[in-house]
Amino acid sequence: MTRLHIRFQGVFEERVRRKDELLEISSPTLGRIYGRQFLQAIWADSGKMCSGVSVLVNGRSREWEASLYDGDEVLFLTPLGGFHG
Fold first, then answer.
1. Residue 11: inside a domain, yes or no?
2. Is there a domain that residue 82 lies in?
3. Which one, of 52, 50, 41, lies nearest residue 15 by Cα?
4. Which end of the chain is less enclosed by CB atoms within 10 A, N or C?
5. What DSSP character marks residue 4?
6. DSSP string computed for 19-82
């Protein structure tokens, strides 16, 4: 099992209705856990991550496909103001 600390800011916090949580999962597929609205906030119609969306793993910017490891902290955030996802 992979234990992750997931944190949300901006539109992500609104969509999942929480600031953070601890997850223990066998396959870190965050989109499946948080559902359609969560995915819509991340992905543009082009299939690319929306501009202004950041995913940080342990404080560093990472690609969506990056591997996650036990104990990682994942932060989903959007810039203050101006984002429409």
1. yes
2. no
3. 41
4. N
5. E
6. SEEEEEESS--HHHHH-HHHHHHHB-TTSSBPTT-EEEETTEE--TT----TT-EEEEE--SS-
CATH assignment at residue 62: 3.10.20.30
Domain count, the chain: 1
Q: Is residue 18 part of a domain?
A: yes
Q: How far is CA 74 from CA 27, 29, 82, in A?
A: 15, 12, 23
What is residue 62's predicted lDDT score, i.e. its pLDDT? 76
pTM of this prediction?
Answer: 0.76
Name the residue among 4, 3, 2, 1 with its Cα closest to residue 73: 4
- Percent of the chain whose pLDDT exceeds 90: 20
6-42 residue pLDDT tens? 999 988 888 888 999 998 988 766 666 777 777 777 7
